[in-house]
Structures are given as C-alpha cells and as structure tokens.
Amino acid sequence: MTASPIRATWRELRGLAGPLFLMAALGLSGCRDPVVVSGPGPLFTVPGKAPGGKTLVHVYWPAPREPQATPEHLLWIGPCDGGAEDLQAGSYAALALAPGQRCLEVSRHWEIGATVFGSTSLGRMELAADRPSFLRPELEPRLLGVRAGLVPVASAAALPEIRRCRRMVPLSNEEIFRQLEKRAF
Question: For the chain, first and last CA: distance in Å?
Fold first, then answer.
C-alpha cells in the first residue's frame, strides 16, 4: 500500500516542525543589536600614519542625507582572524594592518534575550595592504537579512565623504550602565 501524496507531504512538513518552531521562537522573542560600547567621537580630519611599518586602512560608512533613511545596524569591521571595530552609519574606523594580502570581514552581532549572543558574517574581502586606502561597506537587502561587502573608494572620492564621519570612541562605564538600564525588562 502506498502513501497518498497528501500524507507524504504531511510527513515532510512534520520533519520541518523543529526548525520552523525555532525560527518562530526567535522571531517572536526578537533579536536586537548588542549593547553599544562606543559612541561618536571626533570628525575625520586627515589620514594619519600607521604605527610600526603598518598600513592604515580607513573604513567609513557615510550617513544618508535623509535622517529617516539611517540604518539601525551596527556592523563590526576588522581582520578575518579577529580584532574588529564597530561601525555605525556616519562613522569610520582606522585599521592598522601589516603589509601584504589581508582578509577583512564585515559582521553583525546579535543579542537574543539577556545572555545569548550570536554573530553573522555578512561578507569578506581580500585586500593588498601595501598603501593607505579607503573602504566603504555596501549593504544589499536579501530575503532573510542583509549581505554586506567592502568596496574600495579612490582618495579623491572618499575624502569628501569621510570628512562627515566621526571616529567611534569607547563609552564610559556609566554610559554603558545607562544603556543597560534602558534595555532592562
């Protein structure tokens, strides 16, 4: 006796119940950005010098001209082997990289509940760190999330854009505590 097509489809759907339940639970509980531990600092002035024979790579994310179009995302940019800096719309990071081929990664960190954290890689880029350079993330909306890439930008085009960006600086313990108090349930 063979199973009807309807029963076979129902069996397949029952096998998906676990993953679908997990996705629904995460969707209903809500994922949010982790507590921000840095805030806007000084505006960009001129490209600095990297310490100890390293190459300075500026990664910047210009804020949109319309305030309502400002993304809520907090990105982390850094070498693929660790040591990332946070980046928000309207900010920049200066990475001092050893010369040679380097891998840079854009990632997004998530907070699910009070004690569960996660990270999603949004894109990677191989870079020849042989001279100072400028990079800008480009976000591409997808069906389930966002894909990000780092795009090289010529100095002549980058300088007017990055001058509107602020360096992210660490917040004080009191400022971080105030953020935690606001998020308490």
Answer: 56
Angle between helices 5-15 and 17-29 (to 10 degrees): 50
For the whole prediction, is pTM greater than 0.85? no
The structural domain count of the chain equals: 2
The answer on 75 and 22 residing in a single domain is no
Residues 44 and 97 occupy one common structural domain: yes
DSSP conformation letters of 65-108:
SSGGG-----EEEEETTS--EEE-TTEEEEEEE-SSEEEEEEEE
| Residue labelled with tokens 């949004």 | 122
Which pLDDT tens digit goes with each residue over 72-102?
A: 567 888 898 888 888 888 899 989 898 899 9
Residue 21 sits in the same domain as residue 40: no
Domain of 77?
A: 33-183
Whether 91 and 174 map to the same domain: the answer is yes
Among 123, 122, 93, CA closest to 110? 122
